[in-house]
Amino acid sequence: DFLRKPFCPEEFYCRITQNIENLSNIEQIQKAANTDYLTELPNRRAFFQNAELQIADYIKKQTPYCLAMLDIDFFKKVNDDFGHDAGDHVLKVLALYMRKHLGTGLLARLGGEEFAILISGIDDDQLYNKLDDFRRDIAVLQLNFEGKHITFTVSLGVNLSSKDSMAKQLNDADGALYIAKENGRNQVSIFGIEE
Q1: 3-state secondary structure string across the chain
Q2: Residue 194, pLDDT score
């Protein structure tokens, strides 16, 4: 934007206000494009953009990390038994607990009841324990939604520090998640370690 001299002070201040509003609108649009509206976690697009960069940094600095896929066990049953508003409430509470336990990591809702987690730590045991503590905390959680008591569990598939492509790491974590579900759900399964 520009003004020709001589200019009127009112027009100058009007243009400044308009530009500030435009910048604010652009920021809101970017946030909406990269944030899941329900959980306010990053969405799939934001996760893939940021995870690639973080993984490259972890590999460069030789920082242990893990990429995990999380799924709410029997989420359809929650929706069927208590309604979709209750299901939405479960997703929001899960996002709060993810921030509480894994807040320094990159957390995202990929869609439906599926989430992705990228966290770093001191070693593989610490990473596993952090995820398992989170899982155990969710398993004992009792939600009260409109007078209804709701409990739920989560299963996680984990790929520990790998130099494979992010797509391969996610695929391996998804494979581990499948094993966690096959073995009874409500557990953390690590890729490459059969239970």
Answers
A1: CCCCCCCCHHHHHHHHHHHHHHHHHHHHHHHHHHECCCCCCECHHHHHHHHHHHHHHHHHHCCCEEEEEEEECCHHHHHHHHCHHHHHHHHHHHHHHHHHHHCCCEEEEEECCEEEEEEECCCHHHHHHHHHHHHHHHHCCCEEECCEEECCCEEEEEEECCCCCHHHHHHHHHHHHHHHHHCCCCCEEECCCCC
A2: 57
> Which amino acid is located at 149 in the chain?
H
Measured distance CA(67)–CA(48) in Å, rounded: 12
Pick from 16, 13, 40, 167: which is nearest to 1 by CA? Answer: 16
Phi, psi of 140 (to 5 degrees): -95, 0
The residues assigned a catalytic role are 113
Mean pLDDT per 10-residue segment, the chain (195 residues): 81 86 81 87 95 92 94 96 96 96 93 95 91 97 94 96 86 96 96 70
pTM of the model: 0.84
